[in-house]
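Q: Hi! First time asking for a complex rather than a single chain. Here are the components, and I think there are three in total. Is that enough to go on?
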Amino acid sequence: MPLDTQSAIIEMQGISKRFGPVRALEEASLTIHRGRIHGLVGANGAGKSTIIKVLAGILRPDAGTIRIDGQEVTRLTPALVEKLGVHFIHQDRLLVPTATVAEAIFLRHEPRIGPFLNLRAMRRRSAELLKHYFDLDLPADALVQDLTTAQQKIVQITRALAQEAKVLVLDEPTAALVKREVDSLFRVLRRLRDDGISVIFISHYMQEIEEICDEVTVMRNGTDVGVVDPRQSGIDEIVAMMINRDMGEMYPARSVAIGAPVLEVQGLSRDGSFRNVSLTLRAGEIVGLTGLLGSGVKELVQCLFGLDRPDAGRVAIDGQEVALGSPVQAVGRRIALLPEDRRAHGVAMGLSIADNIALASMQRYAKGGLVSAAKEAAIVDGLIRDLSIKTPHRHNLVRNLSGGNQQKVAIAKWLSCQSRIYVLDEPTVAVDVGAKVEIYNLMNRLAAEGAAILLMSSELEELVGMCDRTLVIYRGELIDEFTRAEADTDSLLAAASGAARKTARETA
Amino acid sequence: MLNLSTPMPIEERLKAISNYAVIFALVVIVAGFAIAAPSFLTGANLYNLILNNVVMLAIVAIAMTIVVSSGGIDLSVGVSVDMASMAFIMLLKAGVFVGTALFAGIGAALVVGLINAILITRLRISPFLATLGILFIGQSVQKIASGGGKPVYLANAKFAPTFNAIVKSEVLGIPTPMLILAAIAIAVYVLLHKSVFGRYIRALGAQPGVAWYSGIRVPFHTSLVYIIAAGLCGVTGILLSSTVKSYVPLSGDGYLLDAIGACFIGTTISAQRRPSVLGTLIGVLLLAVTRNGLLLVGWNFYWQQVGIGLLVFAVLALSFGLRGRGH
Amino acid sequence: MTMTIAAETAAKPARARGALRRQGTLVLRLGALAMFALIMAWFAFTTRGFVSPANIFNVIEQTAVMGVLSFGMAVVLIGGGTDVQTGGIDLSIAANTGLCAAVYATLLAGGSGDLAAAAAAIGTGIAVGLLNAFAVVRLGILPLLATLAVMNIVAGLELTVTENQVIGANSTVTQLIATGRFLGLSVLAWIFILFSALMTWAIHYSRIGLRLYAVGGHPEAARAAGINVGAYVAGTYAFSGFCAGFAAILLVARLSASTTATGQLLLAILAAALLGTVFSRRFVPTAGGTILSTLFIGFLANGFQLSNVSYYWVNGVQGVLILMVVAVTTFAKPQGK
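A: Yes, that's all I need. Here is the structure of the assembled complex.
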């Protein structure tokens, strides 16, 4: 039977939603057709997540109509949406961490025999579903918390499929996945599409949007600004619609004289993680560091900040050998770490901006053990202005800032510390395009002021655009180094994946 | 993006009101008792109320406030009180010099704090369970040491001057225990709200991972929190045993629930629901005034307990209920 | 262009860590069991009469009350999450038992029928549980605080009912519970066994149990799955109230009276429920773990009694055990934070 891909399964029209004086959605529309993969893109704050929450029945719109499967729905609730066959795969992996795979898949749709759970059927069917859709042999008794992010994502999708979903809504599904896993996810999505299931695919990754989506709705300032076919329009056009800004400005140019070595690492090893890594970081230099998940990059960074101890090797700062046994010592040596997990390690959401910025350098704010309000006002307000952190007051909670501004607070903490060595671990994750550019500018400025920066990123573009040199770790070993001129995303990826490098040197 | 400077009328106003629920309750209760029991609002009654019901509980509650600020809890405050009391009285009885006995008493409490600190920072046991374990062990130790809970009385005249010097004396017309409380309250206020150490405590309470990643010596500061708290409880132990001129095993346990109650009632005056010295003192007053007032209007001990429970429940309900669900 | 990097080894570290932790928790669970066994063995060898069938059934009978209450607490911990500060906890359960026992004994002593008295006891328990539920779910008060306040109210009410006196009570039902035997086992032992079996079904083999674990493990995820989280949490408090009422009947029957010291059971109940989490690879309360740790605490007290060690030591040993078990648990758990 040919699929009727023209008829709409979801029609949202003229949706408006206000929060107090803030217009989150203004006459926004979204139409999803049967058996198609529909991309939803927009900068942070464009209204993507609001319209999705409206569809999920979490937020009630102030105005607008919603039709699902041709039927107008006035009072949408999460339970009703699910009953209508629309399933949401949340970004923050809404699975019970202490549940088993089988339990997570069948929660609230548990097979039973009389008053007893049919545990055997749960296990068998979940194994079958995982095998059928993902060709994955995941033990049904494994705990969700022991799974990788990708596996958890897969369990979530399997859960929706077990309930015969008609529409899957995937919010940033690839954010924590590696390429191979993304590929297999895409294979599954295409297969589901061919089975007549519709997919709403929300992503910041434009390349993925282009690769997987049949049509794309672009949102800006709370409304939809266009529906395009990504294969015809291309990434540049979509991004231009999103931000009204040219991509070329992303990575600001800079020219800085590179100075003396600041951080020298020699023969650093940690059993099971990385071996014999030597690197040098000079004043004014931005050095990239990349490697696959599990290559040892993360562990290397942990050692440089004293969170882990190396088994062998030496670290010297300004030519002097130092011990980095704990973050206390690292901070004392004016090393700064911008951690990847901002919520757990970067900023304390429940504290004020001032509290956060002053936290690592309290001695600057203190007079005889007490905090000087005047000093705090002077230093913190200076940094808020300097980094243009958007907030009415330094006493406002960090929780109420946007992701980009939270990240700026995390950076300001280290500026307040007058750190000299900055280790940045995925500094632009979950940060919108505008704030990204600001963070890049800030990195350049720091380097210009003589700081040494180690930039760890799995966004290869960022490395190519920002770094004077990029180091690649493969299976725990530093296998390659690219100068700014040599680096491009393809060769970095090849090196990180262990492919032999074809350079002029080798071919000669 | 939500803008914070623009108020959301009704919700925000309710939240603002919820911050004052406890103060409102205190005023209503004081007014109510003033009308119902003529002897309530007399100088003598209030003086006794503060001296006997407020001071000792307030010190323990302030100790609890420090711990709760750091994101922990101390269920062993009673043990610290009792250990101080036990060491103090037993050493006095053995004929040791008063000053030495005082220091030994506080020292005994500090040891309890140190053990808590080790369990929490070295063995990484959660504060609730670590201090619960110490509570159990402390009870056992006391029962063993006192032959099953027999009090040690020092009622003879020889010690009366010592005890009177501690709890019956006055400086500038103010009873010494009140001065001690005032000094402790001010010191802890400065410590928690004005000092660098206070910032670290707050960071620990908000997000310990961030504190560690900011180069703060987390184990050290956590240890200090529990040791200081235990030391303060030790002060209450000395005051208590000087008041009753004896060591009564397990008598410190009575402070635990009131101290937790006062501390958390106190959090309701802050928009962020953070513990504070001022809030805790209000919480202590609320509990003490109610107990005293109910006594004066003729409720027996049993109904007093019901009354206190209902009061605490009402304050919590008002505070949490008006604020809306979730955190 | 943005790119996510491929990795052949991507899944390995997480899996290896998971495996390591699984081994760690297995060692821990076996270790806890071994420790229990060791202490039992020590009593068996050093204490005359400890392993006699009479004594074992005696302990089981003595433990019936504690067992019911530990299950009440365990269910609250499951539904509210085991974070002791913000998670589920019912501090009022012991005081509630005291109140229910007072109501039950007073009614029996006043000549009420068995059924009416039992209904009143259980009704009282559930009413207190519903008050907790209202405070926690509707008003959003932290369980630790809400149940603390309720504990005070209930303890006060108990005192007003009993005037701090022991109230003697006797009826055909209490006689039956206290002295009845069936198939060679006492009625109390039967009640404990049947109650445990029922709870094992409810917690591990019913939809309710599975969903309750989800509610406690990750309320947002449970809500996203369409579970009425509030109703489940409220249900746990109502159930722990029911357990208080039920345990009160057993208690009064066993002692032929209500006692004034029931509130002191709280710490032992907490200890049993928390110790029980060690036997689970997810570190949550389980039926088996709750039964084991309750029995263990019962045997511990009994062993001390028989070996003429002063009962003053019992609390201390419980305290040390909690600390040991939890310290080991902490080390077996994943690091971080």
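A: Chain A has 19 helices and 24 strands. Let me know if you'd like any chain examined more closely.
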